[in-house]
Amino acid sequence: MRKLIRYAILALALVGVFFLALWPGPAPDVEIVPSRPGVGRPGTSVAVRVREGARGVTSVRVEAVQNGTAVSLAEREFLPASTWMWKKGEVETEIPVVVGPETVPGLAEGQLTLRVQALGTGSWLRGPRAAVEELPLPVRFTPPQLTLTSHQNYAAQGGSGIVVYRVEAGALEEGGRHGVEAGESFFPGLPAPGGGEERFSLYGVPYDLANASEIQLVAEDSLGNRTAVSFVERWFPRPLKKDTILLTVDFMNKVVPEILSQTPELGDRGDLLANYLAINRELRAANAETLRELGGRSRESFLWSGRFDALPGSEPTSSFADRRTYVLDGQEVDQQDHLGFDLASVRGAPVPAANRGVVVLARYFGIYGNSVVLDHGAGLMSLYSHLSSIEVAPDQEVEKGQVIGRTGQTGLAGGDHLHFTLLIRGLPVNPIEWWDPMWVRDRVMGKLSAPGP
């Protein structure tokens, strides 16, 4: 019996030696994930992912091949797995590479093949198994052509504008884009009313952008090839005004509990001033982000017509783009920018829609209290805040002049008034321009070849 057991153990040992000597690990799995569907002048970043879960990966080589010439983009070597199966080598790795004119000398338009060779783990007598994966990518360096068709393209700091143009098909393909860049803001182009090849971009100028050279009409194809054209013929700077807000404990005791009760996710900081500053800073920023998200979902079609109306019988108590310094007990505690008009009328005055639109927000909204946001189409929206009551619901269509609520002092408001803001893709812009019927006619609708609404 003991002899049989010894023979069995010897047989198992021989099988193990045979397995270790002759049986390599499997070939790795290779995945090539480019950030773009091809290669343009800026280059395309590519993630090369290699995995072999049994015994591990020993080497990876990434090459760009064009016209029979191979250029190495990356090579990695890894320690092999132990002979004993319970100790693996490198199981999974990701190698980032960039394919473009700067990494592939002599790269020409046409087609390129990205080739990845990965080796698994070999055995004592047999080499590692290899996996070879190839991905063909088109190469194109010519950017889309832009043709400006509108004239008298004037822009003001904190203002609005519209530019009309034609663009080649590359920017119209999936993954391409065209429109206006103003600082860090982008305003996508849309088909001009009436059909045809013209496109237009309704854009806003950031209130803190002081250089017209940062406003450009751009077109970019799916490979990142880009054309940029400066188009602003006249520039009107409007430096920020400065204002001082004197805080009081009574005021903070009035607004802070209300806002915290309506915005529990903000959290109680355990101190009145700390809570106020969190509202004035963090909640203000979160509200701005929500407005940008709403602006990105604006309807393409025009819903509005003619000038926008201000609150009837009102007087402004603050203007657009005031840089406010907040002072408590003689000490500066904060600084924020006020991006709208405060309009005061009688207490609880009816608030009409400034123009035709669709309700996209109707609720308590952070620092703005009870608020309504109307989408007027093509990225243009209006915000009505600090309301004592809301008389519309989300997705409701409203006509110009229709009452949507009543003035109040909810949110960060010291007294009964309406905070009114116009926004383009979520960027606040000066409503004074939109209150002027001649400006709307000449600077906006007059630029479109087909009649607007």
Describe the structure concisely:
This protein has 453 residues and is of the alpha+beta class.
Structural notes for this entry:
The chain is an alpha+beta fold and 453 residues long. The chain folds into 3 domains: 27-139, Immunoglobulins (Immunoglobulin-like, Sandwich); 146-236, Immunoglobulin-like, CATH 2.60.40; 241-429, Glucose Permease (Domain IIA), CATH 2.70.70.10. It is built from 5 helices and 31 strands. It has helices at residues 2-22, 249-262, 272-295, 431-434, 437-444; strands at residues 29-34, 44-51, 59-66, 69-77, 92-99, 110-119, 130-139, 146-148, 154-156, 160-167, 177-182, 185-188, 190-191, 199-204, 215-220, 226-230, 234-236, 241-247, 315-318, 322-328, 331-338, 341-344, 350-352, 357-364, 370-377, 380-387, 389-390, 397-398, 403-406, 418-424, 427-429. The strands form 8 sheets. Strands 19, 22, 24, 25, 26, 28, 30 and 31 form an 8-stranded antiparallel beta sheet that branches. Strands 4-3-6-7 form a 4-stranded antiparallel beta sheet, with no helix packed on it. A 4-stranded antiparallel beta sheet has the order 8-10-14-13, with no helix packed on it. A hairpin with a 5-residue loop joins strand 15 (215-220) and strand 16 (226-230). Helix 2 (249-262) packs across helix 3 (272-295). The longest helix is centred in the middle third of the chain and has 24 residues, at 272-295. The chain is globular. The model is unreliable at 17-21 (pLDDT under 50).
Keywords for this entry:
5 helices; 4-stranded antiparallel beta sheet; 453 residues; alpha+beta; 8-stranded antiparallel beta sheet; Immunoglobulin-like; globular; 40% strand; Glucose Permease (Domain IIA)
